[in-house]
């Protein structure tokens, strides 16, 4: 199974990828998580991307493509993967099709007002890839991750100015991929609105149906 979780910031890519990863035992490869981990560890890549990410801009293609290529070459990704947040440009999509010709692309569709309310209440785990929401997905204990017990934090790029820029970047650089994949014939539109359990229930069925078809 090879799936790309596609959609604007706040669409629920990470939340759905965490569910799918546990359901289908596939690695969840999130470029955002990989970058945030590099920032925390203060690696050269982390130092390079921090100001770009905080401003809500996209990291240049080559650095992003190299990172994903290296991650997908690891043994746990041999029989499949869930990509979350990659590709985000036509250049990245072309690179992905070079090193992996076959995958499904799930476009999670969510309207702008809903995206903004999701991003403004997002709380991220500092220890794993789970995200929570102050209203829509509360942790059992305030400020603590249900899955790993680490403290939750507000992402620097979930502040208002950065959110606005990320939505603009999405419309101009990332959304054109919808047509690119529609032409390729591997795009599947999924309604990303509704509570997380309901979205996951319909997405899971769609993934099972697609898997039975091909890829
Ligand atoms: P993305 O990875 O696409 O940016 P996330 O999965 O991090 O999106 O979700 C963004 C925010 O919205 C998080 O706070 C998450 O808890 C919340 N969220 C995710 N899916 C839903 C949903 N179906 N309904 C309401 N809130 C959701
Ligand atoms: P979101 O969950 O809000 O969609 P991510 O966690 O996927 O955001 O990514 C956070 C930030 O990391 C992006 O705003 C961007 O700066 C950078 N980033 C992540 N993936 C990519 C990518 N494929 N290409 C360029 N930049 C990326
Ligand atoms: Zn956690």
Task: Briefly summarize what is shown.
By secondary structure, the chain is an alpha/beta fold. The protein has helices at 13-24, 31-40, 44-54, 61-72, 90-99, 112-120, 160-174, 176-184, 196-213, and strands at 2-6, 28-30, 81-84, 104-109, 122-125, 131-133, 152-153, 187-191.
Task: Provide key terms for this protein.
215 residues; alpha/beta; Rossmann fold; five-stranded parallel β-sheet; globular; binds adenosine-5'-diphosphate; binds zinc ion
Describe this structure in words.
This protein is α/β, with parallel strands linked by helices and 215 residues long. It has a domain at 2-110 and 185-213: Rossmann fold, CATH 3.40.50.300. The protein contains 9 helices and 8 strands. The chain has helices at 13-24, 31-40, 44-54, 61-72, 90-99, 112-120, 160-174, 176-184, 196-213, and strands spanning 2-6, 28-30, 81-84, 104-109, 122-125, 131-133, 152-153, 187-191. The strands form 2 sheets. It has a 5-stranded parallel beta sheet, with helices on both faces. Strand 5 (122-125) and strand 6 form a beta hairpin. The N and C termini lie close together (6 Å). Residues 125, 127-128, 130, 145, 147-148, 150 line the site of zinc ion.
Q: Could you outline the blueprint of secondary structure elements for this entry?
A:
Blueprint lengths: L1 E5 L6 H12 L3 E3 H10 L3 H11 L6 H12 L8 E4 L5 H10 L4 E6 L2 H9 L1 E4 L5 E3 L18 E2 L6 H15 L1 H9 L2 E5 L4 H18 L2
Parallel strand pairs: 1-3, 1-4, 2-3, 4-8
Antiparallel strand pairs: 5-6, 5-7
Bound molecules: adenosine-5'-diphosphate (2 copies) and zinc ion.
The site of one adenosine-5'-diphosphate (ADP) has 18 residues, from helix 2 and helix 3.
């Amino acid at each position: 199974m090879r799936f790309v979780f596609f959609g604007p910031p706040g669409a629920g890519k990470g939340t759905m990828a965490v569910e799918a990863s546990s359901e289908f035992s596939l690695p969840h490869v999130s470029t955002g998580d990989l970058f945030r981990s590099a920032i925390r560890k203060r690696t050269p890549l982390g130092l390079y991307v921090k100001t770009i990410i905080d401003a809500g801009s996209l990291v240049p293609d080559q650095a992003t493509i190299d990172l994903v290529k290296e991650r997908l070459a690891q043994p746990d990704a041999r029989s499949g993967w869930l990509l979350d947040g990659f590709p985000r440009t036509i250049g990245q999509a072309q690179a992905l099709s070079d090193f992996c010709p076959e995958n499904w692309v799930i476009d999670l569709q969510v309207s702008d007002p809903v995206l903004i309310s999701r991003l403004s209440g997002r709380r991220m785990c500092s220890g794993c890839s789970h995200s929570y929401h102050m209203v829509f997905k509360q942790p059992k204990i305030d400020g603590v991750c249900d899955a790993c017990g680490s403290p939750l934090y507000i992402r620097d790029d979930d502040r208002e100015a950065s959110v606005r820029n990320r939505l603009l970047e999405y419309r101009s650089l990332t959304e054109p991929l919808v047509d690119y994949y529609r032409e390729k014939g591997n795009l599947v539109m999924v309604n990303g609105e509704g509570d997380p359990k309901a979205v996951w229930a319909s997405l899971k069925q769609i993934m099972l149906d697609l898997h039975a078809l091909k890829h």
